[in-house]
Amino acid sequence: MKVGVIGLGLIGGSMAIDLKRRGFAEEVLGVESEPVNAAAAEKIGIVDRVVALEDCVSESDVIVLAVPVGTAVRMLPRILDMVSDKVVIDVCSTKEHLARSVKYHPQRKQYVATHPMAGTEYSGPWAAMPGLFDGHACIICDSEESSPKAVRTVEELYSTLNMRVIYMNSSNHDVHTAYVSHISHVTSFALALTVLDKEKDEKHIFDLASGGFSSTVRLAKSSPDMWTPILSQNRENVLHVMDTYIEKMNAFRDAVADGDEDRIRALIEDANRIRRIIR
Amino acid sequence: MKVGVIGLGLIGGSMAIDLKRRGFAEEVLGVESEPVNAAAAEKIGIVDRVVALEDCVSESDVIVLAVPVGTAVRMLPRILDMVSDKVVIDVCSTKEHLARSVKYHPQRKQYVATHPMAGTEYSGPWAAMPGLFDGHACIICDSEESSPKAVRTVEELYSTLNMRVIYMNSSNHDVHTAYVSHISHVTSFALALTVLDKEKDEKHIFDLASGGFSSTVRLAKSSPDMWTPILSQNRENVLHVMDTYIEKMNAFRDAVADGDEDRIRALIEDANRIRRIIR
Q: Are residues A34 and A58 in contact, defined by beta-carbon separation less than 8 angstroms?
């Protein structure tokens, strides 16, 4: 099997590495619009060859679209225009806009919408790493819109990456990821902005940052290229969760302002219910 | 040297383990008001003996007060009443209230205010572990109020724990820790409350939680016994930081509501400055 990866960043690059290493792909072709990243990806050995988009699509059996979702919405219909029996997948974090962009495309059945839920706060081919996806969940959306054969190929691909596959329609996907993934990026960005605003002496932040602070602020290092279109495309769901979040924050604020230890304790105990769910 | 640890939870227990293991203490005595925890601490071997408070104070050369800060404020003056040439330290996360509680105590010089900035989201003697403090910062507050000999003993103690010591007055301590530590616990509690409120299906949270979500919500597992008095005692500073945080969150919310990608991107890029500081 020949796999073509369009966009050699953290996700596309890490996929390329493991799909080749674990024998799913005999050859991996890459497409990368940023010349520096393209040269790096070839030099690091993430892909066998960096080629033009058209060559990648015509030579590959499976095409992985791993670009930020704003770009993906524009590219996906164009790529489907070029294929007949190849399998095309995307790996984006929002799904409804993408689904809508190809809903009536004559080759819709060759496309499988996927979201491998793994990553780090780093980006670019330098951030790509083997084993990134192992043990994490991957959502396949609207699988009834894809040909069963295409879905089977994609299930095999994610099984090679050691991912647990979950099925969901793209609208539900966008609701749930707003709760469980998108909001935690926003809280982390806001935390970084707050600390950078209040603590002018950066040395103090560095000196005093404990493991707890580092882990809550980690996602604030995430790429604007990736996160701007996610927050903008998943606007309704993200807004809804942000409003709930601001409410909870204000409840906390008021309990602290009133110096009401019983209310502070009750809020913390309520939050502690997460212990039963996460790890 | 004999060390007495009052409160055998995560911090007190972890200190007891390493101070004994690394030879700073020949014997470690423990005081623990919760009978189950006391029995566990003795059984696990965190301390050599669990004894009554009075015996611990009279037998030990260095006394570590490792109880939640609300309790510490009540106990510290009583403990200082019992000592003449022993060294007493606390390990609490807020410092001004404690400093005030013993400001005019005749034995003030025997007390050294310290805050080892390390921990996990778990609590109790079961959470205690060797190496917890290695490489982290420890703040010593108002050291000019303590006898130089007592400070030297405490510096040696923290050097045994491989901590970098930073000096600060207790008022500055409470300002800086509000920025760098307390606020990140509140953002994490609010995140847990939001997700638990919006996502009624706990299986979805479990299935979809990525590494990013887990790391931002991790601190929401923290103990209410520890965090209620911290947020209440550091009320002014915490409120001030929370208000700034809510402002930043609202700026983000409005940019998303307006679908203004330029503003979303500018906020993310601004938050990305944290990359230069953390790791």
A: no
**Closest C-alpha among B107, B7, B16 to residue B67:** B7
Judged by CB atoms closer than 8 Å, whether chains meet at A244 and B185 is answered as no
Give pairs for B263-266: CB < 8 Å, separation 24+: B264/A227, B264/A228, B264/A231, B264/A232, B265/A224, B265/A228
State how many domains chain B has: 2
Tell me whether A244 touches chain B (CB under 8 Å): yes
pTM for this model (two decimals): 0.89
Chain B within 8 Å of A160 (Cβ-Cβ)?
no
Quick one: A140 and A187 in the same domain?
no
The tens digit of pLDDT for each residue in B41-57 reads: 999 999 999 999 999 99
- Cβ atoms of residues B141 and B113 within 8 Å: yes
Interface contact A204, partner B, CB < 8 A: yes
**Do A127 and A193 fall into the same domain?**
no
Structure ipTM: 0.90
Q: State whether A179 and A260 are in the same domain.
A: yes
In the listed set B169, B184, B203, which residue is the last one of a domain according to the structure?
B169
What pLDDT, in 10s, does the model give residues A164-213? Answer: 999 999 999 999 999 889 999 999 999 999 999 887 777 777 777 777 88
Reported as half-sphere exposure (CB side, CA atoms, 13 A), residue B31 has a value of 20
